[in-house]
Description:
This protein is α+β, with helices and mostly antiparallel strands. The chain has six helices and 16 strands. The chain is globular and about 140 Å long. The relative contact order is 0.13.
Amino acid sequence: MTDHQEQPQxxxxxxxxxxxxxxxxxxxxxxxxxTTIWPSGGHxxxxxxxxxxxxxxxAAPVPGPRRRARRGVGLxxxxxxxxxxxxxxxxxxxxxxxxxxxxxxxxxxxxxxxxAARGTGTVAGVAEAxxxxxxxxxxxxxxxxxxxxxxxxxxxxxxxxxxxxxSGASEITVRLDDGSTYPAEVVGTDPDKDLALIKLKGAxxxxxxxxxxxxxxxxxxxxxxxxxxxxxxxxxxxGIVSALDRDVTVAKxxxxxxxxxxxxxxxxxxxxxxxGGQQFNGDTGSSKTTYKALQTDASxxxxxxxxxxxxxxxxxxxxxxAMYAPSSSNGSTAGSVGLGFAIPIDTVKADxxxxxxxxxx
Length: 361
């Protein structure tokens, strides 16, 4: 069966009427049936006027944000590929930036200290944060001048140190980390614990140290020591806690009635102490006291007495008080052998109020 297809109908153009006088040739005219006739320009055909041209469709522009998004995706993809080559940590950072480009992460300080997160657990970070709170103490007496260290505990200049650092001193001068110096006076002493509290005259706005806790300290914990060995202000050393609760015996005080013995004492040899039945750095004498100490292998030398033993969060966990500094053949100190002791900071905190009241002065 063959499909029947209708032929399209051709438009009907009525025959051109004869020329009429008065009518302009080739001008359209209307028949009596209402049909408008357009002349063909004298060629015998009637061509209808061209239809109005169809409006040209204008392609909608590609939205700007979509194009930018494509570029952003390409950029993030390129960075992500580079990050994968560098390592997982960088890739994680790229993912976070891609998720929220406006989000930034700042180094947050560790609670209670100035140690930024980037410096936590590093000797450099601890030293930067705590050094401004450690001072050098020069004590002049009839027997000469000795040098020790101290820890600022209040912004107006209260400083904790060892009793043996300022014992018998007639004049005390304190040098801060920034090089400025202040005269100081003794507030209170506790020879039984080898502790003393002094106060700077006219000081304010100082950076006080953060006092931690010594009850949670464990053998093997990393520590930092800051002090002024041999007058070298702000010296930083590091090590670990070697032992806990060591019985350390030190001389309680210089015997004011034995001037000759005081003159023979050489602060460069370190303050005499006893440990394990042996005497170090000289004779402790008849007036002495024993306390439980933290033992450390951080390098300590004469002048470190009264300085800080610090954990890796920048908190003070002990006041350095005794160290073995063997003498060389010419009588000078031969340097640290990694045998140092510190008064636990919990002992210090428990004694602060008593020291502020004058202690056992």
